[in-house]
Design goal:
Length: 399
């Protein structure tokens, strides 16, 4: 059986499981219509393969070996939330639809409780969203988590989204989706900490609509999943809107981390800043595809984008494709990507002062990631990143 035939069979099986899921769980008419639309999209698109340009750097073939069913009553927890399924039908996001491929369709086809988190006008909140993972005993587990964060005018909020470790080993497919709606004058700091599970595949989507004078500060901390791909779409809708996107990951072994971003400047005098860093060891792979889109009316745009990857192993590989699509003429837009080993002169400097090679390498790696670390103002998130760095660098420091 060819890969294409395997993908078609896998997709057909998922569509049938989604149909049974809907029949068993029911829900309000709009939710069942949402699931039906997801099934239709899944059947129409199928799994993305390497011939799909947007998936050139992400090989989804390993997913075909898993048979995934929705988790047994997985849920999340956060102060002051209400189930998405109990809310009125969500408004269509100003950003538009999530990327049109199989994994966003699966999230839609298996739409469950979900969360809606709100911050009232003029209020300030700290919210932690914890997704509890409950693996199935009869095969791979599917987690189709959904979150919607809504900030009213002038509100301030810090949100941390993370996944608890599973209580037992087992393959898993994560397809989380998050909607961030930031009203004029509001400010949101949002941290997403990927699950740390070498038997899991993750394909997350996140979209944000940022109003006039509003601010979004988003930080993604990569995990140790076999595949960890996150797609971020941010729309700066009105003048003075600002977005800052950042991420860090230390990847080791047969894992693949990928970040895809699209920041849409739709109004004058908006600013965006993107900085993503990764460290690859023991044959790990990473990919970055970032796009800055500037509408022809978005004069005065100030946009920056940079991806930097350290390759600490000859077998490691980093792919990058930064892009600009500019329709206005009074803008300042810069982008770039770098990948390679540590500078020999930096290592020589430390070694000449009696520092062992492994420790010298670890010191430089920590300094490399510090620029992203300084964007984190929640101690628990900083500690999570530090623990990931410590685990990744332990073999080097022990050498």
């Amino acid at each position: 059986m060819t890969v294409a035939e395997q993908a078609r069979a896998w997709t057909a099986e998922m569509v049938e499981r989604a149909r049974r899921f809907d029949a068993e769980h029911g829900g309000p008419p709009w939710l069942r219509e949402l699931r039906a639309a997801g099934r239709e999209r899944l059947a129409a698109h199928g799994l993305p393969l390497a011939r799909d340009e947007a998936w050139t750097y992400t090989n989804v073939r390993p997913v075909l070996g898993g048979r995934f069913q929705a988790a047994d009553g997985h849920d999340g927890g956060a102060g002051g939330w209400r189930p998405l399924a109990a809310a009125a039908q969500p408004l269509r996001s100003a950003v538009g639809d999530y990327p049109q491929h199989a994994f966003t369709a699966i999230n839609q086809a298996f739409a469950g409780p979900g969360l809606v988190v709100t911050a009232a006008a003029g209020r300030s909140r700290f919210i932690e969203i914890v997704h509890r993972r409950r693996p199935r005993a009869d095969g791979g587990t599917l987690y189709a988590d959904a979150v919607r964060v809504e900030l009213a005018r002038g509100a301030r909020a810090t949100v941390v989204e993370r996944w608890e470790p599973a209580d037992r080993a087992g393959s898993a497919l994560h397809v989380p989706a998050a909607d961030l709606v930031i009203a004029p004058g509001a400010a949101l700091r949002y941290y997403r900490l990927a699950a740390d599970d070498p038997q899991a595949f993750g394909f997350g989507s996140l979209r944000a609509a940022v109003g006039s004078g509003a601010e979004l500060d988003l930080v993604l901390i990569g995990g140790g999943m076999a595949i960890d791909r996150t797609e971020v779409t941010v729309a700066l809708l009105d003048g003075g809107a600002r977005a800052r996107l950042g991420g860090a990951a230390v990847l080791s072994g047969a894992v693949h981390g990928a970040i895809h971003t699209c920041v849409q400047h739709r109004a004058p005098d908006c600013a965006s800043d993107q900085l993503f860093k990764a460290v690859l060891l023991d044959g790990a792979r990473s990919a970055f595809q970032g796009t800055i889109e500037v509408d022809r009316t978005a004069q005065g745009t100030d946009a920056f984008q940079l991806s930097k990857t350290l390759l600490l192993d000859p077998a490691a590989r980093a792919d990058a494709r930064p892009q600009l699509r500019i329709g206005a003429d009074q803008v300042r837009c810069t982008h770039g990507a770098t990948s390679g080993p540590l500078a020999p002169e930096q290592l020589h400097y430390l070694r000449s002062r009696g520092i062992p090679p492994g420790r010298a390498t670890a010191m430089l790696v920590r300094g490399f990631l510090d620029e992203v670390g300084r964007r984190i103002d929640v101690p628990e998130v900083g500690a999570h990143l530090q623990a990931q760095v410590d685990r990744g660098l332990a073999p080097l420091e022990a050498a």
